[in-house]
Amino acid sequence: MYDDRGHLTEPHTGSTIGLGTLAVRKYLAESKDEHGAAEIETPSIATDFETHGPANRFNNILFVEKEGFLPILQSLHIGERFDLAIMSSKGLGSTSARELMEGLTGVRILVLHDFDKSGFSIIGTLSRDTVRYRFERPPVVIDLGLRIEDVKREGLKGEPVTLRGESPEDNLQLNGATGEEIAYLTGNGTGRGQRVELNALTSPQFIAFLERKLKQHGVRKIVPGKAVLLDAYRRAYFAHGVNAEIEKIVGKLKAQAEKVKVPTDLAKRVQARLKQDPALSWDAVVSQLAGDHIEGSAL
What we know:
Dna Topoisomerase Vi A Subunit, Chain: A, domain 2, 3 domains, 4-stranded parallel β-sheet
């Protein structure tokens, strides 16, 4: 599975499709219907409690070093089961990611990273000031691993790595590595050490590892206070009532739509309007004509 490497944007619909493995397969699967029209669904208003941001929704963010784990996390509903926002990166956390972390008051950042020099640099960059970004209010950052104890517990095998540059030991120590970890990663100062990636965990092993870490750090479901629950209940009651009335109206209008007299020269009318305004789509013109029809008749 490959990440998006560009985008395709449809005309008129504005839909954008990422040019990556999963996005392309999903788009092609949904494009099989030559008719191309989705079934008419009964409109409804949301019955859940709408939120924007972490308030009453989440108080932890899982920061994953590699985006490749997102499909696994999504398929098992990790975010929903733990009321957990999920953030990923390609390498070091960007200044935008750190600005977001700092701006979300009361939210902890739980970081999953490879057990290597880059992994420690990631946790260090997210935790402290750097040349490119200085925190006014440093976020609470928790290191979920991989660390040397995780490698031992999971029975993971390292792969050879050669560290280049000056003083990798100093850099590792700055970013929180222990003496044992520095020795493992640098080959006792020779520069020819070992590293262990998150990918060394099988999918079931990775999920079990993650869930154990989340529970260990007290990540749990959110239930807001009494005032919010009361407001949410009343909103949901109202929404269910409105939706019930909408279903009645929709049934009546569907019956009328089945019997409506469609203009026999519909194709000519569509072509005429498209000639006047080529930026329109054919279905936008059909919608205009149907709207004109409704405005001219009593329901």
